[in-house]
Amino acid sequence: MHLVKANGAHIPAIGFGTWTLKGEDAARMVEQALVAGYRHIDTATLYENEEAVGQGMRASGVSRDEIFLTTKIWHTDLADGDLQRSVEASLGRLGVERVDLALIHWPSKTIPVETSIKALNEVLDQDMTRHIGVSNYTVRHIEEAVAHSNHPLACNQIEYHPMLDQDIVIKACRRHGMAVVSYCPLCRGSDLLGGEPITALAEKYGRTPAQIVLRWHVQQPGVICIPRTKTPARVAENLTIFDFELADDDMATISDLRARNMRICDYDISPDWD
């Protein structure tokens, strides 16, 4: 498994995302993903599937030590005490002693970054997680978080795909040794996979459009992607991206799509994006 090293964490470059997966579907897909070779599973309190994710992990027969497990704390639970209790509850639902990475899911508009980051540090100090990080943080939030954290932050999980320009945030992450974890890496609900230049590149390389886009992600320094699928056949397909390489010109052609600046996940709780 190809790993991205970031501030002491060794994170598999592709993970299995579980957003929208529930109950038996979630358990079955996590099990299939691990059997297929994934070693990075991503969930969150908000997803309401942590129990099923834990069931899928155990059913897979893959040793817990081989799985990099991430969960995320919802923005309403970032006060000191609330955050620690949220992670403890996640561990109970997942059926594990600790996660490998605990992330603040979204920055709070009312709870200071300093407060939430100090509580997140305590989760690590109490051995409930091996690493800590953030999600949906802007450059301002990243700078504040790094300034107030006693431990290095492993990553910033953000919406990232060829149709969204995240250069400013990615540069900030790299400046602080943090990985970038791409959610919505295939730009779901868009014409990305069915349009140019992705279809032409898929034909050129003899790959699926999804494999082309996922390869574009992991070929960038310090970038990890966590595609989610409900289709069993695509589980293995999405993982098969490490036996070919995109030419520099083709990487640049895909990156040029960022001019569309299409953001999928923008809500009332969202910060002022960079």
Notes on the structure:
By secondary structure, this protein is an alpha/beta fold. It has a single domain (3-188, 217-231), classed as TIM Barrel, CATH 3.20.20. It contains ten helices and ten strands. The protein has helices spanning 23-36, 50-60, 82-94, 113-125, 139-148, 167-175, 198-205, 209-218, 232-239, 248-255; strands spanning 3-6, 9-12, 16-17, 40-42, 68-73, 99-104, 129-135, 153-159, 179-183, 223-225. The chain has an eight-stranded parallel β-sheet. It is globular. The model has no long low-confidence stretch (mean pLDDT 97).
Strand percentage: 15-25%
CATH topology grouping: TIM Barrel
Architecture (CATH level 2) name? Alpha-Beta Barrel
Which oligomeric state applies? single chain
Count up the domains: 1
User: Tell me, what is the CATH class?
Assistant: Alpha Beta
Largest sheet: 8 strands, parallel
The class by helix and strand makeup works out as alpha/beta
Strand order of the largest sheet: 3-4-5-6-7-8-9-10
Termini separation comes to: 33 Å
Number of strands: 10
Concise overview:
The protein has helices spanning 23-36, 50-60, 82-94, 113-125, 139-148, 167-175, 198-205, 209-218, 232-239, 248-255, and strands at 3-6, 9-12, 16-17, 40-42, 68-73, 99-104, 129-135, 153-159, 179-183, 223-225.
